[in-house]
Design brief:
Mean pLDDT is 84; it is low at 546-562 and 572-594. The protein contains 25 helices and nine strands. 60% of the residues lie in helices and 7% in strands. The protein has a nine-stranded mixed β-sheet with strand order 4-3-5-2-6-1-7-8-9, sandwiched between helices. The protein has a domain at 426-653.
Length: 684
Amino acid sequence: MDKFSILQKRARKALEEYEKFRVNLNVKEPMLSETIRREAQPFLKGYFTLAVVGEMSSGKSTFINALLGQRGLLPTAYGQTTCVLTEIIYSDIESIEVTFADGKIKNMDSKNLKNLVAIPSEFENIPVNEVNRLIISGLTFSKIRQRKAFLSQLQSGIEIDESLLKKYCSGHSKSNIPVKVVVKCLLPEAYKGWRIVDTPGVGAIGGIEEATKDFINSKNENGYNNVDAIIFVNSGRLQLQRSGFNRFVEDTFDTIYEEARRRMFLIITFAADPNFIAHEEEEIDRAKNLFINKYKLQEDHLVCVDSICSLFLEYVKGLGLDLKALKKKNVPNDWSIEDWEAAINARNVFIGMLDEDEKEVNNENLLKYFDEFSGINELREKLNDFAELEKMKVFQSLMDHIKRDITTQKKILKKKETTISQKLLLEKEEFKKKVSIEKDKLEKLKSQKDSELQKIRTRYSKKKVSDNFSDMDSQILNLREEDDFYKVDNQAGRLVDIINKKKSDVFDALSSDFESAYYLLQDKQEVTMPTIDFKTILKRVKKANTKKEIIGYEQKETSGFWGGAKRFLGRVFGKSNWGYENDYTKPIYGKDIPDDNKALKDYKDRVIEAFNSNLKEFISSISKRIELVGTEVSRAIDLKVSDQQKQYDQVLAEDNTSVLESKRKRIIHNLDIIEKTIKTIDNI
């Protein structure tokens, strides 16, 4: 079983025991329950998500088939495709579900799917994905036509044929534009907890599509990464040497932000290709220089594979075929001619290698070579280990919070049991004194609370928070150095990611400081109080008192910063028609020359202004936000102190011995439940 599925089972069992503990003890306090349930979500509903990115003709679809051990799962040789993310998940019932832009979902077979997402060659010079986005947003052909200059720029300046654009628009609407594909199928046991996402093949110009970029870099509603690991598939057929490849890599990797690169694996395919074998050392060194060194990918995340070798190996072993007897001309019905020839060519290369090494040419030795060059098993092991490592931090935090809630409840019940026992054993006045001492401790905690919270406020002053962002000024201004819109967008998106991470770090540290102060106060006064969910308090205060971010990276038009920036570009490229006459009734569009330099300068100025405005607003409001959080924390502590004091008063006022004995027995029973729960969770 894959290691993520093992963590899933452990997390589900731990949450089940936690919920049972709350029900059995009738725990009314929220404690850390909201954070615990939020941290459990990746294990309850989530997958270990692996996104596969690769240039067209890099062997991406064949690679996914080999990785999953499912020859024919994804149709290969797509050619240029629309920007549809294809999810592959485990299911007992096989199906392919396609969601269209109008919200309707249809089931279809792989042949029809291939026809649906493939872009006909006649439209290859039209930026179909951008046109689809415009159609989905509700624009008519006449409005789309006004953006022809911008659409041409997306095609590296290739003039858009207006008649073809009209033909494409007339044949497409929300009802036949796919936006999502989900392939449900029987996968090997090792992938039951996984979600493999096949991203559209990217062209050498323009890097990856917006939808892929957003999916790879963004987080879900609970703040966790949409994608746990990213595989960048690169052909080993000497692609590293071809003209323009460095630019393609640069354009692609600029859209994948630093934090996401940490989760990236570089896969070189066609490892059994004779040309690659002949230059293997040279090609790997070049790959390290181009990817590992420049973009700081982990060196052990570079793996050479041969998908055809892997699929061929499984095929031959499954049927018990004699490798030496197989002929290139005898192509099985369920194999393409190209793939079968590649497999036989690899077999012939391995025969030559065995001869050169003076080893016997037999099935056993040939199978060893196929296994060695396939590289899929090595990759699976690395991905499995990475899956465990990537999810372990969240899993450990979940377990720590569950144990903290349960052990805190145990301490509180023990204190209650001690208090009742003292009530039963001691004289009234003596017991009253002991209660008075405990209540005084709570009062001291309450009085010391304000000074501790003030220390935190001081640590998060406007000036000190501002210092965390001081290094961003120069990076924001560096946007002026970029020489086209695409690069401005990529670098701006990267800065958005960095700034949001810094903001998140500020609030995470704040939550941690509040939590530490709370437990320090309890330790000083030697009292135990119910846990307070500081993360949830912070989340609620932020939600209630934070304006919608004006920095964001949205492809569609929204009310945030990017919406304003895109509308500005719309005025530049579309409605205000930069480079065109304002008289839209004139059909002569391609003859005017747009002022690209002025438009680019204006755009960069707008982006920089928006960044600076957003940071200034965030920093100026930080004190107010912290004050609001501090107020909520102070109120929460006061309530806990008040509840504890009331419980002492209730015991003090109770004179019925049988009632007290009954309460004590119930507490002892609950303590026994807690002990069993702790043992169960420790053994999960």
